[in-house]
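[job 4471] stage=fold_predict status=RUNNING
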Amino acid sequence: MQEHGTKLTPDDVLKKIHDEKIAFVDLKFIDLIGKWHHFTLPVSNVKKTLFERGVGFDGSSCPGFTSLESGDLNVVPDPETAFMDDFYEIPALSFICDIVEADTLRPFARDPRGVAKRAEKYLSESEIADESFWQPELEFYVFDSVRYSDKPYDFGFGVDSLEANWNSFEERVEPWIKHNGGYHAIFPTDSTHDLRAEITVALEKAGIPVRYHHHEVGGAGQAEIELTLSPGLVRCADNIVKGKYIIKNICLKREKSVTFMPKPIFGEPGSGLHFHQKLHKKGKNIFFSQGGYFDLSEEATFYIAGLGTHGASVMAFTNPSTNSYRRLVEGYEAPTRFFFSVANRSSAIRIPKSAVTEDQKRIEFRMPDATCNPYLAVSAMLMAGLDGIKSKISPSKFGPLDKNLFELPPREQRKFLPIPSSLEDSLESLNHDREYLFRGDVFDEDLIKIWTQIKQNNEIIPLKIRTHPFEIELYYDL
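[job 4471] inference complete, writing structure tokens
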């Protein structure tokens, strides 16, 4: 990856291609469910019009985009996203693209990046704030091998990590990591340190600033790379998709397998994608007010109440996989009810205890995971929070609760709204609670309809009709 620190114009790009003798331009775009796609142009086909009209592709081949009989869409590269992709044998100048209608060049309504752009526009026009700041925490597992089968007569999966304690009888120089004993493990027990360091260097060269990296709790190779607090929804989501791409490719180069699945192993800690967030107006952090609860402003508590009130429907976008809800269970520092608190890792919305200054004051939404489409996830969170501020939703039923939720009597726990127990529940909540998403035309009925159809038809129903390996243990010999 080659560092980029300045914003490029189309003319800058053409000059860079000429001066650095770049051979290829790579165009990357995201589909509705969150997968990245690309195609590559030799520079002989790169003209200034590429940044105006883009290049056509078949939208019907991407889930949720267009139908077969009207499939044509264009991708238009955003010159400000330029970075050198060195993972190819012949490096290419790479861009993240917007998707437009092939004939009119109007923004394609189902383009996830376009949703985030509309959310940013809505924020700037709201008079509440003019800028949002986001800080994602990327958690993932690094395995030495993975295998699975989904045949009618042969089903199951397996992963392996040499540093996990189930390999303690295998020949190895370094000690293994105990079950749930990986948090901030030290080198050489932390066998993935150098891998994360290589990833961090590549992220920063690609223009993605990193706060730190460390081994996470999961002893079987769980890692975290936390990015820095940066302005902009679109930039945040760009950094997540680009960051996942870099992480996957460097792990592959080192013959490792990486997954961002929320719960790849039963009994091991899950992986989340926590989002720190705050709002600014004219350069001032509107989440800060001295004298409030931990110096939170009234706007911040309204924002929290908006996230809590709409949290179940927001999770249709922040936790959009069937696997998401296997992570959100008691015993793993994962939230199970909507409440807020300072430094409390059983809360859905946490106020970091170290965020004491006006500039640092922020909240952390701990529900999401990396199976989300980040453009849709950040947009849904922002819209819920802004509705809390606009509607002045009282935060009283969401806390604060400065106690471990799981140590309270059940009656006390039930005072707080439970999170959905499945993707089906989240989609049902979205069906009943979505008007807040339509403000500013950020989301629309069509997108939510196709999103729900994809999740039902491609994920929920296919999983329901499959035999689960645990069912063999339960019922095979009855």
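[job 4471] summary: Confidence is low (pLDDT under 50) at residues 1-5.
[job 4471] exit 0
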